[in-house]
Design a protein that fits this description.
The complex is a heterodimer of chains A (412) and B (187). Chain A is mainly α and 412 residues long. In chain A, 62% of the residues lie in helices and 1% in strands. Chain A is built from 18 helices and 2 strands. In chain A, strands 1-2 form a two-stranded antiparallel ribbon. In chain A, helix 2 crosses helix 12. Chain B contains 8 helices and no strands. Chain B is globular and about 40 Å long. Chain B starts with a helix and ends with a helix. Classes of the chains: A mainly alpha (412), B mainly alpha (187). The interface between A and B is medium-sized, with 24 and 23 residues.
Chain lengths: 412, 187
């Protein structure tokens, strides 16, 4: 069972609490479209994790069996603390190279693409960051950290990072010196000059202090979140792949295999620090304007409703995926992916949103009608009829409401 | 076992010297020497009786094959490339190559690391014979001899492990100095 499933109700409640508090304090804590993009990215990350983590965890287990110098006993609390420290050190270097190597930045950039900083940003995770991340924990396999211990400390490290993604918590005194906190992690997500490539720690900020990447939050300068070359999209799939596409285009334009290779291996700004074309060379926090498509309120409500349904599908997928064939798993993953992309398109008001959403709804309706057993879930006839009626209503709404230019036309 | 430990010690010392001599100007070469040196150091301890380190020795040797040999090839063939000339470039190449090498090997693609090492050695040989000088040719020959001994695998009449270690130590020193002359001469 995926432990994130258990954590999810906590995530949801705390996000609602944060949004309420931010509103009470008069802050623009949340934007529905941005938050939903984050949550959709989290969903896609969980779906891809089913495929990627199986491979990467298998590599760890095999490396442990083949190379471990000694097997650590699981019942020694001190060793758990050491394992957490070592894991966090591995995380620091993994995270640092996620920012410093183009091909790894392509995977990680999605986490930084939100221009808001709230708990939903923590869930804006990548579908491909795990492709390289496992390399940094191989030394732990050689040292003898058992796979079960690695999985637990990895989960602790991941869950710890959730609460630091908020603007509502100020500085935390002595904790700022040892731990990753909301204050020093805000700096990590900032695009102000002093924030770039700083504060990579997962739980402990001491690694940044040791390796020279620490920066304290400045009192007089508001942190502006996001990346210098903004995403400008609510499509969670594009958020995950856009930088790969950019690198592929750059590599195609280069001559010779070594130059092509260097495009992927170099830092995001290139070896000589030249910025990406289109990125602002001089950054002025005062002139920054957040991406806004002025999504109408009824579209936002529709997107929120469907986010709930996509979430239910995700929960079901995570529960049953182990018993599905690879083809069924891929098909289910495709439905979830298509749903998240369709809702993102509606929020972004792209031209093809109405057609894509209609196709999605028709596909799901046909699926429910033709297959009484929905990926091992046998639904009673009454429930299926209710679902089909609800989806038909959504289809009618999509076809009617989105025809209106005020709703569908792109707000350039 | 003493022979293996002694030859690994010689290899480790050769690598140590290369690291000291080249760490500032040829980071790719220095990192390749460091990876091989770490494997050799684990080897010394392992062959002297620290059985605990057998896994670490195997792991470091695998990383050497998958990452240090390509770094060596880059350092000798393309000394101006960021992988050879920049510490950051060398480290990220080593991480990715080493990681992929370990991953592929444990997943059952056992020929991965030897194939990478072989291709890298061929690049080194090609470089040596395109820009011939005595040290380079001697280094290239010893590298080929060491790899052939390693592939041969039989221990009679001499330990092939010892031959590999000694040939590799001598080859690294000769190739580094030959290539240094070439770089200095601007060839």
């Amino acid at each position: 069972m995926n432990p994130i499933l258990y954590a999810f109700p906590v995530f949801l409640l705390t996000m609602l609490g944060e949004a309420w508090l931010a509103r009470r304090r008069g802050l623009t804590g949340y934007d529905t479209a941005d938050a939903l993009t984050s949550l959709h990215s989290g969903i896609l990350s969980q779906v891809s994790g089913v495929f990627v983590k199986l491979l990467t965890f298998t590599i760890y287990v095999l490396a442990y069996q083949k190379f471990a110098v000694v097997a650590w006993p699981m019942n020694n609390p001190a060793l758990w603390v050491v394992a957490l420290l070592l894991y966090d050190l591995g995380y620091y270097w993994n995270h640092r190279l996620n920012h410093e190597v183009s091909v790894m930045w392509a995977a990680h950039i999605v986490h930084h693409s939100s221009e808001y900083y709230n708990l939903s940003t923590a869930l804006r995770q990548s579908i491909s960051t795990g492709l390289f991340g496992w390399i940094f924990y191989l030394p732990l396999a050689v040292l003898g950290v058992p796979p079960a211990m690695l999985a637990v400390v990895g989960l602790i490290d991941l869950l710890y990072q959730y609460w630091v993604h908020t603007e509502l918590i100020g500085r935390l005194g002595w904790m700022e010196r040892v731990f990753v906190t909301p204050s020093n992690h805000r700096v990590h997500h900032g695009q102000n000059d002093y924030c770039i490539d700083k504060n990579y720690g997962g739980i402990f900020i001491i690694w940044d202090r040791i390796f020279g990447t620490f920066a304290d939050e400045r009192r007089g300068e508001k942190v502006v979140y996001g990346v210098r070359k903004p995403l400008h999209s609510f499509n969670p799939l594009w958020a995950n792949v856009h930088y790969y596409a950019e690198l592929a285009a750059k590599a195609r334009a280069e001559r010779g295999w070594r130059n092509k290779l260097q495009v992927w291996l170099a830092p995001p700004g290139g070896w000589h620090g030249a910025r990406d074309p289109g990125a602002d060379d001089v950054f002025d926090p005062e002139r920054f304007a957040r991406y806004d498509r002025q999504t109408p309120a009824d579209v936002r409500r529709y997107a929120l409703l469907h986010y709930v349904s996509i979430n239910l599908m995700l929960a079901h997928f995570l529960v049953v995926q182990a018993g599905l064939t690879t083809a069924s798993r891929l098909a289910y993953a495709g439905i979830i992916l298509g749903s998240a992309v369709a809702i993102g398109a509606l929020l972004q008001r792209v031209r093809w949103a109405r057609a894509f959403e209609s196709i999605r709804l028709v596909t799901v309706i046909v699926g429910i009608v033709l297959f009484p057993v929905w990926f091992t879930l046998a639904t009673p006839l009454l429930a299926r009829v209710a679902m089909v009626l609800a989806l038909l209503y959504c289809l009618t709404w999509t076809l009617r409401s989105l025809r209106s230019p005020a709703v569908a036309a792109p707000a350039e | 076992m003493i022979g293996n430990a002694a030859s690994d010690m010689i290899l480790a010392l050769a690598c140590g010297w290369l690291i000291l001599a080249h760490r500032n100007h040829r980071p790719g070469l220095a990192l390749a020497a460091m990876l091989i040196g770490v494997a050799a150091t684990f080897g010394v301890l392992h062959y002297l009786g620290a059985d605990l380190l057998a896994g670490a020795h195997r792991f470091a040797s695998l990383v050497s094959m998958a990452a240090a040999f390509p770094l060596l090839a880059f350092a000798l063939r393309w000394p101006q490339d960021p992988v050879a000339a920049s510490p950051a470039g060398a480290v990220r190449a080593a991480l990715l190559l080493g990681g992929v090498g370990v991953g592929a090997t444990v997943l059952g693609v056992a020929p991965w690391a030897p194939a990478v090492a072989l291709i890298s050695a061929l690049v080194v040989e090609l470089t040596v014979f395109q820009h011939p000088n005595m040290r380079g040719i001697a280094g290239g020959t010893l590298l080929a001899l060491g790899m052939a001994a390693s592939a041969w695998g039989k221990s009679a009449p001499f330990s092939t492990v010892v031959i590999l270690h000694l040939c590799l130590a001598a080859a690294l020193l000769l190739l580094a100095s030959a290539n240094n002359q070439r770089t200095v001469a601007g060839i």
